[in-house]
Amino acid sequence: MSPAAHHGAAVGGARRPARTAPLAAEPGHRRAETLLRPLLPVLTPWLATRRWYQGTTMTALRPAGITVIGGEGRPDLLVAVVETGSGTAYQLLLGMRSELPRRLEPAAIGTVPYGPWAGQRLYDAVADPALMGALLRALAGRRAGPLRLDPAGRHPLPVGLVPRPLAVDQSNSAVVYGDRLLLKLYRRPEPGPHPEVEALRALTDQDCPRTPRLHGSLHLDGLTLGLVEEFLPGAEDGWQRAVAHARDHLTTAADPDPGPGPAVGFAADAQALGRAVAETHGALARAFPRTRLSAEDIAADAARMKRRLTAAVAEVPQLARHRSRLAALFDEYGRLGARGCPVLAQRTHGDLHLGQALYTGGDWHLVDFEGEPATPAAERALPQPVLRDVAGMLRSFDYAARAALLPAGPHHEPADPGTGPGRRLSRLRRAGAWAQRNRRAFCAGYADGGGEDPACRAAQLTAFEADRAVYEAVYEARHRPHWLPVPLAAVHRLAGGRAR
Ligand SMILES: Nc1ncnc2c1ncn2[C@@H]1O[C@H](COP(=O)(O)OP(=O)(O)O)[C@@H](O)[C@H]1O
Ligand SMILES: O=P(O)(O)O[C@H]1O[C@H](CO)[C@@H](O[C@H]2O[C@H](CO)[C@@H](O)[C@H](O)[C@H]2O)[C@H](O)[C@H]1O
């Protein structure tokens, strides 16, 4: 029998809590303490194995916030926030049933040892369509206890759509409703305005055709827990599309470079992507402040890049031998202001790469405006030169070309690009030419779409590419060490002065 059928009745020898309303009399933190404390013995080891858990050591968790949605014939859904000793918050969506159906076993977390839910099976609720449906209904009502939906636009959220978890689960979790809505759940919520919610709200207000429309954002006790946006059905991941094209290119006998003239093949896609990025930058420039950086600002930006490099060298020692040359590139950028070269800063995407671009029937949409995951939220919203985004995408063409050299493995790991030195060199050259052509096409599209011509900003672009490659080296060393050779090769190339 569903535990919710017993709602308010004895379960596992203890009285179960009633729904949100009777608990609302308790202050939020006490309610979270009462309800979440007994779950911690099973939650703690589970959290440490999540892909989105970033901690190196699991410190004592502290219950921070909760709302309970459920009862009356349904299992309970807990939308909860716990904090680690260092103050990092994690969002947990927890289901509670007396018995777990086999289809939900992979989502099992454990059995609650004591407290109001003693004996209940605890599981990750994102896997349970019944609970994700209940969450959408609660959000459509705009409030469930302390959980609140801040709507965007006039239309109410459609309910009754069939939910399914999105297979990709990296920094966050996502649920798709009937191929119409996407609920994105921030697993590491932060206080204050959220850069992605702010950006999508502004882009939606402007009817920007290059980004999904925002329907609303979710908040609990001052934290932004997620957002509901338009789902783009049938969209193809830009990274996969690029790698597939690059692979085709490596296996065809034709001349890899068709020369000047209209862009063809993937280069036409890259050009359209450049236009889409420029259009999005244009819309962001209209919605948020745009300033010309002073000579001091530019020098300070360059100094930050040098500090990031120092920190990166400490973590990735292979960067050390390129340090002085990279620092020189950053210095060169740092002097632009003093030389009277204009550098404009505005709200940007902040972590732009092919995996954030979705190919939708002949054109592109950009998603995931969260910025670089390792940067604090407040910093991610600061105005930046747009060429940082351009540099991120240019780096991505290089990544895609490298990935194409590999046999298509389950994780697309970069490895030995071929057999025999001659063949290896020829494939490397062809991959390099592919990346080069698409980088050029992207820049041409960017200029065509109203953005400043990246080709005319070589010092800036080279410095930003180097900064991005340093960031990537740290990211790969931390998360995917087998990919580290890709950004290291770029650092080597950029430091050697062969930027393009
Ligand atoms: N609005 C959308 N419509 C269709 N697919 C989407 C949408 N937003 C994201 N996706 C898919 O989900 C993936 C992960 O989304 P993203 O916002 O990048 O999450 P994360 O921050 O966890 O990386 C994307 O690469 C894309 O494949
Ligand atoms: O998508 P996220 O916001 O989580 O971004 C992080 O992870 C990316 C990898 O998934 C990482 O991107 C790097 O690898 C991509 C290929 O997998 C490549 O397309 C990008 O150009 C490269 O930067 C990103 O840096 C990181 O922030």
From TrEMBL:
UniProt name for this protein: Maltokinase
Organism expressing this protein natively: Streptomyces glaucescens
Pfam families: Mak_N_cap
Region Disordered: start-end pairs: 1-27
Top-level taxon: Bacteria
Matches recorded under InterPro entries: Kinase-like_dom_sf, Mak_N_cap
Domain Maltokinase N-terminal cap, first and last residues per copy: 46-128
Feature: compositional bias, Low complexity: 1-25
Annotated keywords: ATP-binding, Carbohydrate metabolism, Glycogen biosynthesis, Glycogen metabolism, Kinase, Nucleotide-binding, Transferase
Family the entry assigns: Belongs to the aminoglycoside phosphotransferase family.
Metabolic or biological pathway: Glycan biosynthesis; glycogen biosynthesis
Subunit annotation: Monomer.
